[in-house]
């Protein structure tokens, strides 16, 4: 037999968990077995009252019955001096069928002196028998609250002995044992709960499945106690407990929490063979578990299996799948799932819309995020603080800080309470835009509201100050953090290192990394990459390489950003051979380059007008399974235009458009000039109009070309329009730049 341990961890508050773990005292029943080996409950034989005691008991009983509408304290005032603890039980005998009278009298008696355990157990039995389980529960809980500082083992034994001793004459309702069992589980006395379970078997009483489910739920709520839950699950049926669908749901949820989804899936199969019918919660638990470990296909198969059994998916089922797709950036597919669930008459809730809003903002598609937000409102679903925080974060990350501020105030106007996370998100937005005054003003506002800024809030402020070059102020803020007892983390140190590097104080940055080590916080890949970036930008490639070697020696895995910093350093200095060697080394060591890695090499080859090598690197990039990005196409098109390879440039332009990438203004300029030189005027004109539609500014040389062209064609209207546009966008912009 494994050991039992106490727990005080709360029940899960998640939507699905609350359904899987719910139980109700009002429907709780306890099974009484009829086995011949069980012992009978003992007869109750209390102390007999003397004649004088009997007279006093009669007077008290009669008085409180006849004057029941008056306060008990007033009625019993004449008897206070003569009343002893023994009288309590004798009076209870006379009024046992009047619950309100019993409770009022008991409360009066315990104000004078703590009643005996026997008396408490009698009132517990009366409460259970007269269908007042809440009162019985409160009395049991009160006993354990008072016994907190005593020997739990002896208190438990004495309490159960008195409960069993008084059972036969004072209630004979087995519900009382369920209530005691549940209270023991609730206060974390699992050992005592198990002892009670075993003891009651001797009297032929088996705890209800609802009570046993409560024990399962409390044990399985903590990953360290799942073994105990498994033990209970296997042991209790041998004592007569018949597990139900809820029992299996609790166990499956427990396994999913520790990512043992295969075990949860096996329980789903097992419950059917044991005569328990899986419900929508059963399937949703396993589907959610599969989604949490990234098993989308298996989750979808289970959804189909669920449908084939006539079970209708609920919003929670779909939300698990939508959450997984959004986490993987597949927001379009996630929205498709939303449409599918609505086609199956499943009404989406606030959680699903919030998941999608969050997903679209993460991929930078703010228009879709707000479209879903408006759709949410049209369905009369009320966005919560999490929804608004997702919108505010998305707006901030896309530089739309004024709209984020408006969204924040709208949230507050609707009576929603912003927490530390929401405030920190907006503070981060202000810091990113360099609006440090607004950031600190919002910080002060949250403090005035009683919210405590956490390490993330302060790190955000430190990072903002460092980006503004206010490293000294950031340092002062660090000291303030320490004074408040906040433990600096790797992100805080990295922000300061980044700030020191940006203001050129590399020596202090290196010193800070040494201080980190002393403080027990080890620099990570970001710390070293930040330092490497400074050396690369100052042309000190030997030092940058030394930092990389130090990283590797300490067992710190470089990120792709680390290698891209080095690659940019080599290419910026024209060290193309070193760049190619770095790429080969990365591939040999199993580090997969990304588009940024190749873009640096491609750009350097284009600068050298070595289009043969450019094409070779581009082909290698594609063969390695690295998809080109917008920057790749812009570099290639400009390179081929420079080399007068307009056929290749036009082909790449077509491919860029097909893949949904945008051309930069400089790429448009290069293409238009190249096409003009090749007398491909119609194509050049089309690109020029496209460029204007996109709101981009062409070179003055291109405006001159089209002014001459339209004038020669006699189109004075467009000529004058282009003339005004050229003055506004080229000449005025040039003067503005000169003055600034």
Automatic annotation (TrEMBL):
Keywords: Repeat. PPR repeats lie at residues 173-207, 244-278, 279-313, 314-348, 349-383, 384-418, 419-453, 454-488, 489-523, 524-558, 559-593, 594-628, 629-663, 664-698. It comes from the Eukaryota. The keyword Repeat applies. It holds the Pfam family PPR_2. The keyword Membrane does not apply. Belongs to the PPR family. P subfamily. This is Pentatricopeptide repeat-containing protein. It comes from Stephania cephalantha.
